[in-house]
Design brief:
about 140 residues; 6 helices; three-stranded mixed sheet; mainly alpha
Amino acid sequence: MASLATIYQDVRRLGVTLIPYSIGFADAATLEMDGRYGIFLDFDQFETMADYAAALAHEVGHCATGATHAVHSPFELVAQHEDRANRWHYEHYLPFSELQELVADGYTEPWQLAEATGWPEKTVRDALEYYTQRRGLQLQCP
């Protein structure tokens, strides 16, 4: 897993402000105003540090790609922006090459990959779906 320090380096590089806030409707949300980004994080919603890191990495993906939208945006636009943030998250913090190395070392189940990378199993499953189903890449098992 990309370390939390790596994610924080990207936060600083992008000039993002992190704001602890009880959001009520989500564990994290990104707002953009005049080209500046703020990520609101509801720390009561995270059960593990891995859950926190995954949410933060996703939100950093919104900032890095500029994929933000008005609250009243059409569902299709929201889905596209969520997809763009997820893709950025996977490609920067859980790259295919890292998953391939782990599979070559015998980690073949999503839960094993999650333990080896430190990401939540759902994040690993979603990354695997992105790489194999959408990008057409194949993991080479030993």
